[in-house]
Amino acid sequence: MTFFDDLPEPPARPRQPQPIRPGWFGPPSDELPGIAPGGFVHRGANSVVALKLVEVYSTGCLLDLAWSIRRSDESDQEWRDIQENSFSRPGLPGIMIGVGLADGRKAIAAHPTPSMFEDTDDVSGPVLTHRGGGGGSAGDEQVDGSAQYWLWPLPVEGDTTLVAKWDDLGVPESSMTVSGEQLGNALGHVRRYWSE
Predict the structure, then answer these.
(1) Which fold has domain 33-111+126-190?
(2) Rounded to a whole number, what is the distance in angstroms from the first to the last CA of the chain?
(3) Are the beta carbons of 94 and 87 closer than 8 angstroms?
């Protein structure tokens, strides 16, 4: 017998069911996504915004974006300002991201999101939400950042236009086409964790 052998058993507690999240909230937690390729949204002399890839789930897709700003002839103070502005932070000015669907509807990643309203059972979409990101400096010559955006529902009927704009960093309104066919093909590669 050791010192800890006579500890009482903790009381039994009922198992908590997995919370049900609405589709617009984010990716399903029990799926391995299919992958669709990305491309350049904007490619300028000193700035790039790229869609690295699209993680496709049964209910929507996660757009994985990256950007890079290369220093040109900015003064030290101008460059510090660029470095400060080069991170994507919800609620603050920064990169603007939106999507245009083939049927003419559009969604912009900004407030308000459906979670800010009381009745979230009647959301029809499309919904585009910021899912986090980060950034850093590669020395005194370049800054890089990234962010993910959840698009719901999954737009497989026709092509989707991804649009970006970042006035503070000199990125004009730019766009690229995300193929509905490629999203549909990636959807065929989605795998559920559990085979029930």
Answers:
(1) Immunoglobulin-like (2.60.40)
(2) 44
(3) yes
